[in-house]
């Protein structure tokens, strides 16, 4: 198979991929923020599509989220079809970017030189306003 994936748990019998995530907040709203920030949805689509490309049956994907702070709550989440389709579009674009960079040897990065940082407005003179 030309793609790689390392699911935390894969059951061919159940056609299920389980991905374990730790989080300070396993609530739906909290994990949704983490999912967006770390692009976990892209990973879900990649794992599903990779297993299918390697001849495995179509899979369901579930995040098993465990809080890493008390009370160590646990939650399970699946993604809707629209989210997985967006992830597939983003993954396809990322693959094109990777191929282009591999061919050209030019990789995206920060601007060369020394950047200038400006103190955020909410911190300016805040110590002297009292």
Walk me through what this model shows.
- The chain is α+β, with helices and mostly antiparallel strands and 130 residues long.
- The protein has helices at 28-38, 40-53, 81-104, and strands at 9-11, 16-23, 60-67, 74-77.
- A 4-stranded mixed beta sheet has the order 1-2-3-4.
- A hairpin with a 4-residue loop joins strand 1 (9-11) and strand 2 (16-23).
- The longest helix has 24 residues, at 81-104.
- The mean pLDDT is 92.
Query: Helix coverage percent of residues?
Result: 25-40%
Q: What is the residue-averaged pLDDT?
A: 92
- Low-confidence stretches are none
By DSSP, the count of extended strands is 4
Determine the strand fraction and express it as a percent band.
15-25%
For the biggest β-sheet, the strand order reads 1-2-3-4
Q: Tally the helices: what do you get?
A: 3
Classification by helices and strands: alpha+beta
Taking all Cα atoms into account, the compactness measure Rg is: 20 Å
